Amino acid sequence: MAVFSTVRTQEQTGYAETNARLEDLVRDVPGFLGMDFAQTPGGLGISVAYFSDADALAEWRTQAEHRAAQRRGRAEWYESYTLHIGKVERSHGFARAQVPPGPAAG
Hints:
The longest helix is centred in the middle third of the chain and has 14 residues, at 64-77. 4% of the residues are buried. The chain starts with a strand and ends in a 21-residue tail after the last strand. The chain contains three helices and four strands. It has a four-stranded antiparallel sheet with strand order 2-3-1-4. The chain is globular and about 55 Å long. A hairpin with a 4-residue loop joins strand 2 (32-39) and strand 3 (44-51). The protein has helices spanning 15-27, 54-61, 64-77, and strands at 2-8, 32-39, 44-51, 78-85. Helices cover 33% and strands 29% of the residues. The protein is of the alpha+beta class. The protein has one domain (2-85): 2-Layer Sandwich (Alpha-Beta Plaits), CATH 3.30.70.100. Keywords: Monooxygenase, Oxidoreductase. Residues 6-72 form the ABM domain. One of its GO terms (molecular function) is monooxygenase activity. This is Heme-degrading monooxygenase HmoA.
């Protein structure tokens, strides 16, 4: 798992296009399991990418277009960032079931 927290600069030219491209590329990495995102209006962003093992994460880390985006991010798009690499020991979730609307009372 890679947790990437960023504070973005005002200069965001090309960011959205590059981000979309990287989302496409990471899906092609064998062992990529998924990703979660959160963004505040103030520019703080958190991306969490899940990989099956360290080899899959290493493949993503060294992918050429990803490396180029990292350089551009440091030069233009990020005021600051942190990267944390970890291992998920356990995971579970909850989702409220959607109840279909019933007949109108009346």
